[in-house]
Amino acid sequence: MEKTEYTKKGSLKVSESVIVTIAKNAALEIDGVSKISSKGLKIKKMLQSSADPSDIRVSMAEGVCRIGIGIIAKSGYNVINVCEQIQEKVKAAVQSMTGVTVAKVDVTVADVVFEPVEEE
Fold it and tell me: Thinking of the domain 12-41+50-113, which architecture would CATH place it in?
C-alpha cells in the first residue's frame, strides 16, 4: 500500500513502511513511552530481513491515512496524556514529512513497564 501523487514533474510515491517508520520515531519521542509493542509475526515474515515486529498499522483510503499504534507505557505517567501526545505528534510528523492527510491515530496501551528504582 502506498500513496501516489502526480505532479507536472512526475509521480511521487510514499510507501506504508515510510509512514510506519515516521510514526514509530514520533511516538518514541514522547516521555512515558517505553517502547512500541510487538505484534506476532508469521514464520515467513520472520525470515524476511525487512520484517518490522512493531505493532503499527497503516491503512489508506482515498488518499487519507489511518494509523494504529501499540505502545508499552512507563509507570508513573498519566496514560491518557501520553496517548494524546502520541496522537498529536504522530499526526503532525506524518503529515509534515509526507504530505499525507492523517484522519485518525488510534493508540493502544499493550502493557506498562515498572522500571526498578536505582539505589544510591
Answer: 2-Layer Sandwich (3.30)
